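Annotators were shown the component list below and the corresponding predicted structure, then asked to write short factual statements about the assembly.
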Amino acid sequence: MLQIHREICGYCGACVSVCPEGALELVDAYLTVESDICRCCGICTKACPLGALEVTDEE
Amino acid sequence: MKNEYDVLVVGGGPGGALAAWTAARLGLSVCLIEKRPAIGAPVRCAEGIGKELLKSFIEPDPRWVSADIKRARIVAPDGTTIALDENKAGAEVGYVLDRKVFDRELVWQASKAGSDVFVKTRAVAPIMEGRHVRGAVVECCGKRQDVRAKVTIAADGVEAKFARWCGIDTTIPLTEMMSCIQYLVTDIDIDPNSNDFYLGNDVAPQGYLWVFAKGERSANIGIGIPASKNKPDMRARDYLDRFMRENFPNGKIIECIFGGDPVSRPLPCTVADGLMIVGDAARVVDPITGGGIGNAMITGRLAAEVAAKAIAQGDTSKEALMPYDAGWRQAKMGKTLERNYKVKEYFITLSDEKMNTLAQSIEGINFSEITVMALLTEIIKRNPKMLLELKGLTHALI
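Structure shown to annotators:
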């Protein structure tokens, strides 16, 4: 699953724009992921300038 | 908030503000919504803009001009510095703005012209009739309502979610999304009238690092590298922190911002039935500099002008709104974007050694104008041995 490390995230939206599925969104300045849409491809983890996103094996 | 307007603008940055301001001045009823609680904050930008471009929209005001820049310096990997001086070059170097105040001023002007403005109000879905966009479902503090509009202008920035909801693929390839981080640093020794650009694969691979003066002893110091160049142990932030340690170890960081900057070509089409896309959402960011404020304002204004004509004629179909798309592409802005994209694609292939060679070849030249074109013309003129390699670049300039 995609894990958002909220203590690191700057809520800038860089990940939102590269997600090919449109699974990420900034809602009230908080990053949210629609887990039923997310394919855990990891593209967003590369776009994040801070390393706030991580694809983990956790369910 | 009313339920029906002529124009609904989604996003309160410079693109959205100019769209709302222009539309209101043309006598349309306008609603501008901004999802953040405050216009202009948080800043997601290095805040630079060309002087003449800015003046074509609004008279500069000391309340939101942080620095009047007199020169620019480009620093090659080996330290070779190309100095571009305004005294020799006219007023093209630019201002560094205070976006928190500047954005508010633009929205204030839109409001004074008659636009309704709502903050902490976001679009959650478009209202569609078949393929025609008829406004948006908006949410403010948990309350949802329909806002119908004859034309909806998507100015929601790099995220570009609204257009995507309307069926337009706005996804940016990883290689063309610049991953950016910037510190506002105080108590540092800088040239308060200079904007400096540092190049090199060690400093900022396939991107650049900037030091933009914001006063006597403060500056925006930031970096943008392609998202694809971010590695787990060497992200944009790590490059910037290393630069700070080496150059400004005693600087005080009083603000830290992050963001993505699209350096791709613009969207293939920036209109649909009832919808126009402006600014960063339309990807009209300069691929070389990453600057987008001026182009956002250009597209915002043009979108509103075309929308006003379409509404007056009672036809807001894609065909009726196409003069907007064609207009900015055929204008100087569109041509510059296309040229600079090709130039950017060439420059990201350069090794540090090649960059040094090119910089050394034009070091010390008094440029007659400070433009990308002027720099490239000199580079090509002074590197005849590299002509074959530069051929692709030459084509880009024609």
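Statements collected:
1. The longest strand of chain B covers residues 143-154.
2. The radius of gyration of chain B is 21 Å.
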